[in-house]
Predict the structure.
Amino acid sequence: MRFCSLICCICLCFVCLASHATERLTRAQNMLYQQVSLMALVDTDEKFNQYKQSLSQYHLSTSELSSIEADITTFWLHRNIPIRSLELTQQKDPLRRAMAIEPQLAGYLELQNRVRHLQWLAEQDWWQEIKFERLIRPGESDPNIPNVLRRLWLLGDASSAATDSNKLSPPIADALKRFQRRHGLKPDAIIGPETLKWLNVTPEQRASILANNFIQRAEFMAHRDDRFLVINIPAFEMELFDHGEVELVSRVIVGKPYRPTPILSSSISNVVINPSWRVPKKIMYNDLLPQVRKDGNYISQRNFDVFDRNNNLVMRTAEQWSDLAKGPFPFRFVQRPGANNTLGRYKFYFPNDFSVYLHDTSDPKLFQRSNRALSSGCIRIENVKGLANWMAANLVKDKQTWVDRHADRKRTQWFALESSLNVHLVYWTAWIDDTNQAQYRNDIYQLQEDAYTRG
């Protein structure tokens, strides 16, 4: 009897060990599945989709797991994104190995949860197109309002999908405003073309957009210095980073779709107070000369000086300027510094091949628009004074002259910096914000069409 009991105990132990090993293997495969699901959205290599299928169907052998783990590790390290522990990738325990190759990224868990939810929504086949024949304003009714509310609930913008009418009631309007803010739209609770477009973006497309942009941003941040300025073009936003902390945030205006702000990296080497504006030829021909043709007084009213090819100042009457603007125009415009100068009070110069820079504006009301793709390529900064003050406190060499020159609105002064400030013009159309909300923006330059059309 004792011998039989001992055998039973040993067998039970083996069963428990086997069950424990199976449980850890299952958990490991689930973790790997989440990683390859993300990678299948980002990488064009079909192997990640194949890995998804294998990991979801059966327990894999040690060699099969090793191959998947190696490709996951390569995916992250190729982008200079650190994983938890390269040493632990050699462990025998599959769960420890799966944990070891997860990326060390802020917001990664939130991203996985969001992508998992979106992929689950995609499997339910709930995303039939919603259509409206007209604008729907708060207080108005339409048979599709319950469908809109349900979609807002599925995306996390409404607390409930329950409604007993077809009316766009105040609670639905509030949910719509939350949705509109998350998509960079005017939060007016009006269901118009832009709001409807985003309501109809499928879960597959949302997952693809979010995953691709998250990885792009993570790869970008992995290469950064202690201090840098980043302008996210589709978000119309600037952030100043100093040793990992965001020191300053500002709304910005960027280039129109047919005059796009370029994606580039450079370094701010000078700050200018009261800049003059040397008008680029393209802007002169496309924007200024049509105004001069209508009214030659436009030149004097906007404080422009006109120079010939030999850099001589040219004087003409308003009528003469209007006539000259109708034909070949061998002159150039320079706008004098002052309150009406297009560049405003400050200009931040960084060398680049596109003749773009950061500057103030003489038309601050434009920052109130939700779509701020309004410039000819340069970046206008709403909180330009905050950036200028930070530069003065941290980088400008001659601080006393900086103070003195602010009393004179019409005198241009260039200031050298003790060290340059790296500036990066980037293009991210989605991210997860500090409140764990997924933010989306329009692909204003049509640079991410693959992510937006996937699914």
Remarks:
- Confidence is low (pLDDT under 50) at residues 11-17.
- The longest strand covers residues 413-426.
- The chain has 15 helices and 14 strands.
